[in-house]
Amino acid sequence: xxxxxFCKIINKEIxxxxxxxxxxxxxxxxxxxxxxxxxxxxxxxHISKLTELSDGDEIIIGKIYKVINKIAKDENIFxxxxxxxxxCGEDGGQEVGHLHFHLIGGKxxxxxxxx
Length: 115
Ligand code: 5GP
Ligand code: ZN
Description:
By secondary structure, the protein is of the alpha+beta class. The protein has one domain (5-105): HIT-like (HIT family, subunit A), CATH 3.30.428.10. It contains two helices and five strands, in the order αβββαββ. It has helices at 5-10, 57-74; strands at 18-21, 25-29, 37-43, 82-85, 101-105. The protein has a five-stranded antiparallel β-sheet, with helices on one face. β1 (18-21) and β2 (25-29) form a beta hairpin. The termini are far apart. The protein binds guanosine-5'-monophosphate (5GP) and zinc ion. Zinc ion binds next to α1.
């Protein structure tokens, strides 16, 4: 957990462009955006991946979706739509071991959601 890059972003040990923050959730721009809007929304609690949810974590997951809606409004993509992606584990293409929700939009996205 201590060498988790997203925990370091939470602790401001690594700089990021933060677009939302509260006691439990942080959202910041992806360093390598795939669309005009590409934001990562994460719980401040270190959860390594979707399959590692504990009892009670469903509350923070619900809050994350509410925050995603708020950010979508702030980024002016709420009405036109967007995509939310969670990569999980090796086959899911997860590279950073701290649960994160990709909020992607600002352009017409392809219809294929996987390759
Ligand atoms: P994953 O493949 O794990 O679902 O996505 C990890 C995402 O984190 C990638 O889109 C990558 O560009 C982003 N990322 C990795 N390191 C950093 C960083 O230090 N800062 C920011 N802002 N994004 C990062
Ligand atoms: Zn972490």
